[in-house]
Structure formats: C-alpha cells, structure tokens
Q: What sequence folds into this?
C-alpha cells in the first residue's frame, strides 16, 4: 500500500503522527470501451466547446452555474482563500457512542499507520478507544475537501471512516407507505420465527462474489480456447541494449582499434611477433660482447 496523506491526530495536548492508507479496494474486473467494428480502443479528450481544441488539465478551471444559469469561474487561488481544517492535522472534536452514528453516514475507510519511531501515543489512543467503547469524532482536510470522520479501532489499528455531512443524506417519504394497515400479531410471530431460523453470527468469509468468479472463469476460458473474441498480445520484442551499454561497447571498440587489435586474430599475431622480437634482441647483445672477452684474454 502507498500512503495518500501524512499528518497527526490532535488528542488534547497529545500529538499522534500518522500516515493514511486506503483501507478498501474494488475487486471488480475492469473493462475499457472498444469500437465494435474493429476492436479499436475508444479514447476521450478534454475539448473546449469554443475553439474545439484539446485542453491540458493544467489549463482547466472550475465553473459553477446557478439555478438561474449564471456562471462563476473560480481558480485555484480562489479556493485557497476558503476556510478549511488544518491540512495536516486531525483534531478530535469529541468521543461519542458508536451506536449513535447512523451507518448511512459512513463513506470511505482508511487505515492509520503510526509515523513515529516510538508509537507510544498511537497505542495509547487505540487502547483508550477500545476501553471506553466509543469512537472519536474528528475533523480534517483530504484532497482539498473538509471532512467529518469517525476514528475507531480494528484489530489494534486505528481506522478513520469519513462521514457524510447530515445535509448529504436525502430525506425520503414514499406515498405508498402512508395509511398502510399494521401487520397482525400472528404475521409478526411467523416473521420472527423465520428470522430465528436464519439467525447466526456474522462471518464475512462465508460470502463470495459469484458474479466476478464466473466472469473471470469466462475470460480465462476464452483466452485458453483462442476464440475469435480474443486478440493475442504481440510477441515481446528482444530487449534493446541500453544506450549507456552501447556507448561503453563503442568506446571499448575504439580503444582496441587504437591499440592495433582490430579483429579476434590480431592479438594472437601481435603476441607472436612480440615474442620473436624479444628472442632476437638478447642474441645480438651476446655477439657484441664476445670479441671484448677474447681481447682481454689475449692481453
């Protein structure tokens, strides 16, 4: 996993440095769109409706349109002026009973890793949350958005769950539920009996995503059979020699040419010539010294 955020939890006067990791992942098989006629990949461009030209992401600002159709364009500088929680701090606002938080408010989950060589404060906060059986309501900024969150413990690790703001949960009232006759006592008893027969402790390992399993099986079988629906990946080309290696080989080749060793047989010839020269030189020296020795003896 890769950390997406670093900061610290402000637990009163206690500071708890942490790293934030996404706690969940989507196991769904990913597809991309293709042209049905030839299988070509469908790509999307950010085009300007005024000049029809592609626009780089760095040149994009954000616009708001009011219900009356008025448009306001804001830049990054405008957003920087808005009030937000401290960008690298997660202050604890209060501790609340977990059952008081409606599950509909829970959004995304994140693991918090201690970002300190001595994570004593991290363990202290985690153990305290377990003992009091409450969650810490926190306030923080993630990806330029101020968020509310619930801090709890899972298997000894702090988990931060973002919460929706109350006005993000839609109020609902269905007309068909109005003036409905209350269930009879006998109906309720039978329903409760059925509930009892299906009651057990929750074990998430008992449930699997059969759709994804069958989809993966379908794809594997199609690839193995080589059906017309499969386009084989092109064979991998031989790895190209690294540019630095090519330069090094060229430099070594030039060095050999400069020393006179241009081919594989040249070094052997050069060695033989050198040996022959070395053998002749001592013989010449001996011939020159011989007369001098004879002169000395005659004297």
A:
């Amino acid at each position: 996993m890769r950390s997406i955020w670093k900061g610290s939890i402000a637990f009163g006067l206690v500071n708890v440095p942490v790293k934030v990791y996404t706690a969940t992942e989507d196991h769904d098989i990913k597809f991309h769109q293709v042209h049905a006629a030839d299988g070509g990949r469908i790509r999307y461009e950010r085009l300007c409706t005024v000049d029809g030209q592609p626009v780089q992401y760095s040149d994009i600002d954000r616009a708001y349109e009011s219900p009356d159709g008025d448009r306001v364009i804001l830049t990054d500088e405008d957003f920087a002026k808005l009030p937000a929680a401290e960008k690298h701090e997660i202050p604890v606002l209060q501790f609340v009973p977990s059952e008081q938080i409606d599950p509909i408010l829970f959004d995304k989950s994140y693991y918090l890793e201690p970002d300190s060589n001595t994570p004593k404060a991290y363990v202290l906060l985690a153990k305290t949350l377990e003992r009091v059986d409450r969650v810490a309501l926190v306030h923080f900024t993630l990806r330029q958005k101020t968020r509310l969150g619930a801090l709890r413990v899972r298997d000894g690790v702090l988990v931060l769950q973002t919460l929706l703001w109350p006005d993000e949960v839609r109020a609902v009232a269905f007309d068909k539920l109005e003036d409905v006759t209350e269930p009879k006592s006998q109906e309720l008893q039978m329903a409760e009996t059925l509930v009892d027969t299906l009651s057990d402790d929750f074990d998430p390992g008992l449930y699997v995503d059969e759709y994804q399993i069958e989809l993966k099986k379908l794809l594997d079988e199609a690839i193995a059979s080589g059906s017309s629906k499969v386009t084989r990946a092109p064979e991998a080309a031989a790895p190209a020699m690294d540019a630095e290696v090519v330069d090094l080989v060229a430099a070594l080749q030039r060095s050999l040419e400069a020393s006179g060793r241009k081919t594989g047989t040249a070094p052997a010839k050069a060695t033989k010539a050198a040996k022959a020269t070395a053998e002749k030189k001592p013989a010449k020296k001996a011939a020159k010294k011989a007369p001098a020795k004879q002169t000395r003896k005659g004297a």
